[in-house]
Design goal:
The structure holds two protein chains of two kinds.
Chain A (H helix, E strand, L loop, with lengths): L1 E5 L2 E3 L6 E2 L4 E2 L6 E3 L1 H17 L2 E7 L5 H9 L4 E5 L9 H15 L4 E5 L10 H9 L3 E12 L2 E8 L2 E8 L2 E5 L11 H9 L3 E3 L39 H14 L4
Parallel strand pairs in A: 1-6, 1-8, 6-7, 7-13, 8-12, 9-12
Antiparallel strand pairs in A: 2-5, 3-4, 9-10, 10-11
Chain B lengths: L6 H18 L3 H7 L4 H9 L18 H14 L1 H20 L2 H13 L4 E4 L15 E5 L2 E12 L6 E7 L9 E7 L5 E6 L10 E11 L4 E2 L5 H37 L1 E2 L2 E2 L4 H29 L6 H25 L1 H4 L5 H10 L8 H14 L6
Helix pairs in contact in B: 1-4, 4-5, 4-7, 5-6, 5-7, 7-8, 7-9, 7-11, 8-9, 9-11, 9-12
The chains are: A alpha/beta, B alpha+beta.
The structure holds flavin-adenine dinucleotide (2 copies).
């Protein structure tokens, strides 16, 4: 089985600082990590390979330093890794990201299951997985918490929904996003780490993908970040004055005024 | 301090630390309380290749030696000595095989240990043979189809959990210690039964059991090396494994030191953090000095073993005695610094102090090892070797 895992490198903190002048995230001094949800995707991919055979290919779009995330992926069991890196891919929104990834999938030609994390901890949208499925014209299941069975070109999964679980059957190839309930990711192995240190990291640029420059990166993005800011926290507490009866009357007036009673 | 470890050794040490902190730390108190063998952790150590560290590459290992083993043991023991000894005893269980076994024997038994799928154990101690291992009574009588084992081993680490046991038994009763041999016995061999599991003061997540042999027939091919060499093989084994106990002690002392510093930093008495009190500072300084000295001696002894030196008895004994006495002292002082809290189960130093005691007892008590060192000292008239 050909298993593809989509992995993003993200700043290793949820306390991101914003540079108000450039409207961008302050990345200095923050260690980059594999998006935590993607570690579950990789683990599930490796487990599928252990059970059904085949290989796990990890695809990551990012700047050259994202190579470290891919090396880590090898230490955790990935067979092949591909870095999608080109200035043309930069400043992509979710749509352009999915476009780039889908072009890479088409170049890979053969995939049975594509596994993404349910969302990232920096962008947080959870959109890339479904967009990718749409562009590849394959089925999609989100928030998978268990892969129940895979047989030839058929897949049965359990997915989490607000009221409980759904069991879904779909055909392969397919794209799924996984919830962290799906597994407990393993720690790296020594042989994996040693292999990862010397592994060649394949890099694909825009020239390797059958995609035009205006479909990817900033040019291919239909949304643009105009401003990033922390919402202002306003505390509007008010202490009512007067004796108890006066306070109660004031409170009722206020609630009526706000159409709350 | 920089011990000039290779990149590979640093990788081994840091991965062992990650496993200890992420997988052992959250459960160590529970494992201790329940006296539960840490199977989940053993599996994790297996999938991370930690059991490959001490196995040659031909048998699916990574080809490391005593120092690499020590690095893993140290890091595990920094968090939980019970887990550390369960891991280390698997190495102990196959070291005689690695030194004396045939290629065929290694091919059969080592890959399973390397992957962590199987755990090893080593058994010499009996009720009549503790420090005096020459006084074993278990027999392995040569019969048609192999050796027939009868007798009881006691205090065997990994007993009942291990799949592969190296057992020292008398193949020739009439020759006493010179009639002892090392034989591999697999779990589930008919006539091989597990006796009671001991209830211990410390290292309670590790399993210590009696092994009972009742007309247990073991194939002839399981004999390691030549018959009659078992006693020497056991002594050689401990010569090489003692730095591992030293490493267990270093890790324990390190863990206790860290816990004591953390506590002293945040505990306030007489309007100040107790780490500002000189009496406390000097205790911590001594703990740090002793721990670092123990580490240096253990690493040096391990490197001496790995150099292939012919005689390692004295060096490995020194490292074990010094490090284990250090661990006992440092753990006791860590409890002292933590005051009444340190005496409570809720604080890790309480467990560390209980765990430390065994280090002065097994793989040769510290008195017996001092005898050995003194004996060698007389031979070389106190001159440096
Ligand atoms: C938790 C645990 C795990 C163990 N695991 C294993 C294992 O995996 N495999 C295995 O084979 N064994 C194992 N042992 C056995 C261990 O190695 C022995 O307990 C140890 O060698 C001491 O033997 P003993 O208990 O019979 O003490 P004894 O030999 O009875 O000693 C009692 C006291 O007398 C002292 N003494 C004895 N002789 C001398 C001497 N000549 N000079 C000075 N002092 C002396 C000792 O130092 C000690 O203080 C384990 C023991 C324990 C407690
Ligand atoms: C089993 C048990 C029973 C107990 N029973 C009682 C009881 O019945 N009644 C009761 O009142 N208490 C009782 N205690 C509490 C006991 O008296 C305190 O634990 C003890 O006084 C130490 O105080 P602490 O735990 O707050 O340690 P801390 O005060 O935090 O001290 C920690 C360390 O700092 C050192 N230290 C602190 N101050 C100084 C200083 N000025 N100079 C040098 N070193 C210093 C201490 O010696 C220790 O090594 C009990 C404790 C235990 C463990």
């Amino acid at each position: 089985m050909n298993i593809v895992v989509c992995m993003k490198q993200v700043p290793g903190t949820t306390q991101v600082k914003i540079n108000p002048e450039t409207n961008s995230l302050v990345r200095e001094g923050i260690e980059n990590i594999i998006n935590p949800f993607d570690t579950y995707a990789l683990e599930e991919g490796v487990r599928l390979r252990e059970k059904y055979g085949g290989k796990v290919t990890v695809v990551c779009m990012g700047p050259p330093q994202a190579e470290s995330a891919l090396r880590e992926a090898i230490s955790l069991g990935a067979d092949d890794v591909i870095l999608l890196s080109d200035r043309a891919f930069a400043v992509a929104d979710t749509w352009a990201t999915a476009r780039t990834l889908s072009a890479a999938m088409k170049k890979l030609a053969s995939y049975d299951i594509i596994i993404c994390g349910r969302q990232t901890i920096d962008g947080d949208t959870g959109q890339v997985g479904p967009e990718l499925a749409e562009m590849l014209e394959v089925p999609f299941v989100a928030y998978v918490s268990n892969i129940e069975e895979i047989k030839e070109s058929y897949l049965r999964v359990r997915r989490m929904v607000e009221e409980g679980h759904e069991i879904i059957e779909t055909s392969l190839p397919t794209v799924i996003t996984v919830a962290k309930e799906i597994n407990v990711p393993r720690l790296p192995s020594l042989r994996g780490i040693m292999k990862s240190k010397n592994a060649a990291i394949t890099t694909w640029t825009i020239a390797d993908l059958n995609v035009s420059p205006d479909m990817v990166g900033l040019a291919g993005s239909s949304t643009q970040v105009i401003k990033i800011f922390f919402p202002q926290r306003v505390h509007r507490a008010e202490i009512l004055e007067g004796d108890l009866d006066t306070q109660v009357d004031t409170l009722i007036d206020r609630l009526k005024g706000a159409n709350l009673c | 301090m920089d011990y000039f470890l290779t990149d590979e050794q640093k990788t081994i040490k840091s991965l062992a630390r990650q496993i200890a902190e992420e997988r052992v730390l959250p459960v160590r108190a529970e494992l201790d309380e329940k006296e539960e063998f840490p199977w989940d952790i053993m599996r994790e150590l297996g999938s991370s290749d930690m059991f490959r560290v001490f196995i040659p590459e031909e048998y699916e290992g990574l080809g490391g030696g005593c120092l690499e083993l020590c690095l893993v043991v140290e890091e595990l023991s920094r968090v939980c000595s019970g887990v550390a000894v369960s891991y280390a005893a698997s190495a102990l269980g196959c070291m005689t095989l690695m030194e004396y076994g045939t290629d065929e024997q290694k091919r059969i038994f080592l890959p399973g240990i390397a992957s962590g799928e199987k755990i090893g154990a080593f058994a010499v101690t009996e009720s009549t043979a503790g420090s005096d291992i020459s006084n074993i009574k278990t027999t392995a009588e040569k019969v048609e189809g192999g050796y027939l084992l009868n007798g009881t081993k006691q205090f065997i680490t990994n007993g009942g959990e291990a799949a592969i046991y190296t057992v020292i038994a008398l193949t020739d009763k009439t020759r006493g210690a010179r009639g002892a041999s090392a034989i591999i016995v697999e779990k589930d061999t008919p006539g091989f039964i597990f006796g009671k599991k001991e209830k211990k003061m410390g290292i309670r997540s590790s399993a210590t059991r009696e092994l009972v042999f009742k007309n247990c027939l073991v194939p002839e091919e399981n004999l390691l090396g030549k018959p009659g060499l078992g006693f020497i093989q056991a002594l050689r084994l401990f010569d090489k494994s003692r730095p591992g106990i030293g490493a267990q002690a270093v890790g324990l002392a390190q863990g206790a030191l860290e816990a004591a510093v953390d506590y002293a930093e945040q505990r306030v008495q007489f309007d100040q953090h107790i780490i500002n009190i000189q009496a406390v500072q000097h205790m911590l300084a001594d703990m740090a000095i002793q721990t670092e000295a123990a580490r240096a001696l253990v690493y040096a002894a391990a490197r001496h073993v790995d150099s292939g030196a012919k005689s390692v008895t004295e060096e490995s004994s020194m490292s074990k005695v010094f490090a284990s006495d250090t661990a006992m002292k440092v753990a006791t002082d860590a409890v002292q610094i933590c005051g009444g809290s340190g005496y409570m189960r809720d604080y890790p130093v309480e467990k560390m102090m209980r765990d430390a005691k065994i280090l002065q007892i097994y793989e040769g008590t510290n008195q017996v090892l001092r005898n050995t060192i003194a004996l060698n000292l007389r031979k070389r008239k106190g001159r440096t070797a």
